[in-house]
Write a structure and sequence with these properties.
By secondary structure, the chain is α+β, with helices and mostly antiparallel strands. It is 54% helix and 12% strand. It is built from 38 helices and 16 strands. The strands form four sheets. A four-stranded mixed beta sheet has the order 3-2-1-4, sandwiched between helices. Helix 31 crosses helix 34. 40% of the residues are buried.
Amino acid sequence: MSESTVVMPSSPAWSTYRATIEGLKAGRSHALKGIEILREISDATDTLIHSWFRESCRDQNIDPDNASDFALLALGGYGRREMAPSSDVDLMLLHEGELKEPLAQAFTKFTHRFYDARLHLGASVRSIQGALEFSDEDIEALTAMLESRRLLGSLPLVEDFIDKLGRKVRKRSRRYLEHKIVERDERLASYGNSINIQEPNLKESPGGLRDYHQGLWLTSIKEGRKMTVAYLVRMGYITQRDERRLRHALDFIFRMRCQLHWLGKGKGDLIRMDIQQALAEALGYKDNEDRLAEERMMHEYYAAASVIRQFADDVTERCRVRPRWHRWLRRARIKRLDDGLIIRDDELDLPDDLHYFENEPSRFLKVFAHLAATGARLSNHAEAALSDNRGLVDAHYMTQSEPKRIFRDLLAFRGCVAPSLRVMDKLDVLSRVLPEWKHIKSLVRHDLLHRYTVDEHTLLALELLESFAEEDLEYSGQRQKIFENMKKPDVMRLLVLSHDIGKGYKRDHSVVGAELVAKIASRLDYPKDDIDTLSFLVRNHLDLSHISQRRDVSDPRVLAEFADFIGTVERLEMLYLLTHVDIAAVRPDMMTSWKNHLLWQLYSGVRRVLEDASGESRRPELVMARHIEKTEKSLSDRFGAAAVKEHLSLLPRDYLFRHSAEAISDHLALIRELNGNHSAIRFRDRDDPRFQEVVVATHDRVGLFRRLCLAFLLENYGIVNAQLNTRSDGLVCNELVISDQVESVRDKEGGRMVLRERLENLLAAEGDLPRLPMPIDRRRPKRTRYSSQVTIYNELSEDYTVVDVRSVDRTGILLTITEVFLELELSIQYANLITEGNRVVDVFYLMHRQGGKIIEPENLERLKSRLLESLEDTGNE
């Protein structure tokens, strides 16, 4: 039936159903718990189904209330009476023997009522035997049937089916359990195994409703019957305290899901950033002094998700299938440690002593040191005991020398420490050892960049610090060696743990963090030199990243200035490793090969300056002379000494440092190819397949870079980096790093051919540029802590004015920026263009079109104000 001919149902039952749903949506749900909302929706659905099914049966002279050979069952979430506003209504018509034609017609008419009402219906018709056979083929159907609930029809028939299904499940439980556990592992891996991400899926992400279902499904399979939270307590799967925490977490998640469905007008479960503000307001959150309403809401979400994930982890471990000889091997494989601790089957366990920690409180932190040393995991018994006794770790406890020594030794361990610290965080111990940690716990900041909460980002950075060997980026071996050779790995780890500890306050988080890390290190009895180093590096922990991406890292002046600033190789090493893991822990795709290269180039260049006892590397004129001589010699054989000297003399002094001899060779070859043509173009592959280089030689003209930007935009390529080299004779050699925005639907060579044609046409064309296509809609939060910023520097370069532009990313933003430069008659000599998440950080080296830096105060102010106005106008489109 087409949408235009749909006839909406009209009946008292439908009116009652709609009134219930609309009443909940209009605000009555605020007075109810999450489970109460779901049950009201489920009960309203029950009433609607009773009415419609009876009507359909009555037309066929069937009495469902006295039936003996069929029954209508609610399955899955509907079977549990946990219906969200846009959940599917999953039904199964169960029958005995052959399906009779009148019943088949009645059920068809009944299902059509749902389609006409545009309700999401999942309906099946099965005999008892057919249902049992299908459950063996489809384990999702099996778990849905285990949660079935009779709506209408024969009760004996339903009980017979449930009994047969239970016996079958118990008989094959090992296979079913293995399947569900592997299925969960794969799901968690696909969602990154992290709860603390900015846009979690309320159903599928770790700690989502699917984890709650997992606990019910596994126990239902193991017991061969439908399980509920109350049954889990009764049968010893969880404690009463666990039940209270789980119900509280579910109440929040259920309410959140209902509001999410109503706001989204559908059953989508992704908590998108662009809807979080409205969702928070619908749930009653308000802004406070420190956090936005949506940030407060997400903080509670992460806490609830942690409880649900812990529930699923515990139940999964209890239901995990182990070989029959496992119990014997478990007894045999026991390793005894200090303080009565034991390792049994890769699990660290405590002695059976109720006063184990009370008798010697220092044992509490020793458990985490043993975890790091052995690589074991905590047993359920040990985890519960640590959770029950974490109150011992209070302010007084951390003033004692022994706990402080144990924690320092843990940070200094020559192995992996991050897993132990994650367990400490999970058990709410880390925030007791480091009270400052509590402020960043589950802290989400709407800065358009970080995918994870601040605490998750920090722990992920620590994990990356300990796993350089597993990286597939260049220089990973060198980074691994730097970390392994550090004299004080504990100071390095404390630096990583503390680098963002100042976030969430009103002041600059780097400044606040420097103050906080000094207090932390002082409390832990670190010497003054280490405290000064930590404070200095936290205060300046963004410098290496900013310089590598915004300055010319080949400029000897840049290297010398930073060498003077950082002071020692030890501090440089620590800052380099911190910067690398800080960037990589922002989001999975954040540390690109290009950023990795720039960062290493800056680090290695500054290190050479610091290690140069003669000081010659700090004299730019000597470095420049040697480099010119070396480059001219390498290129003269192919192009002739005169041509090479002429080319270099027509370009700015820093051209040599920004390009390798191979790149300069390409420039000379393309200039030779020009020979009267409008342009010569060459493509180069990069180590990272997501990027490629385009080298364009052409004649300079007003708005040239704008034409290049438009060409890439029209063919769906993004510019990652641009180095614009304009010779004084009017020839241009531009080098651009681009990424293909639609690489999955076209091959590289075909894309290059089309892009080449587009570039050639636009560079040769006269007159107005083609119109920009309608911008692609990108979901963004309605408000963010990130706003457009324009900073102008005249002291960073002798020849150019440097303009740093940071803004929310949008289609065509580079065209917006370059239009301002065109309007003000400014020429771009060099650009570094970086997209980070949903924001851009672009740096331009500019000069007047007639030459020279922009030094007039009124012109500098006009440039800044016009850029900000244009960015604001674009953002409001």
